[in-house]
Peroxiredoxin (Geodermatophilus normandii), 295 residues
Amino acid sequence: MTRLTVGDPAPPLALPDTDGVVVRLDPAAHAASVVVFTANGCPYARAWHDRIQAVARDWADRDVAVVQVVSNDETDHPEDSVDGMRARVAAGEVAGPFLRDAEQSAARAWGATATPEVFVVDRDGVLRYSGAPDGDHDDPAQDAAWLRAALADVLAGREVARPVTSPAGCSVKWRVELLWWAGCPTHGQAADLLRRVLDDLGRGEVHVAEREVRSREEAARLGFPGSPTFQVGRRDLFPVDAPPALTCRVYARADGRSSPLPDADDLAARLREALTRPWELPGWVDFRRQTASPS
């Protein structure tokens, strides 16, 4: 997974709100912008929720824009559907734009791994802070102190004193899909391989959606270069420079041979990276314990 680094340009962000109106991040229009990847059911996101809304309200008159993005796959998390989001908006629980990343493209582009995960962008569109709102979701008195301090530094034209903290919370719930075409005989083997590899990775809880691709138009829409195709967050785990097609796919194996299926070890490595959880990031620190995770 590609992770943004402080100093990187912020990726474009244009997503629909709960009314279907597309909201675009425009850093140049504000003194600072905050992008928060969040979720409706995650206990960490719920614990930090009011603190983040307070930041949105407290800093609005200082020209700070806060947008909140829900990227989780709704298959096993219906509370993160547009309907679930609308309910929170209707209840007055959300300050500012509340955006649905149904294709998970924004979470991929920003390298989000946690809910919540906070990014602060300056007027030049440069990432200045990433991480958690503060050091303890269980302590409301912390009041999103890390986020507030980062905003104060950005608005004052200073370097952010603490530009990176370890994201803490629930993992982003990625959509894992197996795309297949009936003209190839490997669908069942591919499904078994994918399930076995996820189990071996200790990720048996991950939902796998199996989708038959029936037309060239559908193949083009899904970016389907052949059967079987393994995707996470609508991104091909084995990207190839090939046009969408209803055809059988060929994978290069470690021993140099070609195969209708990838090596299990290769698939495992790509899944491990694509499904990275926050506490699996290199150098991740639990700030409540002040201990680094194993490398």
Observations:
- Residues 176-274 form a domain with the Glutaredoxin fold (CATH 3.40.30).
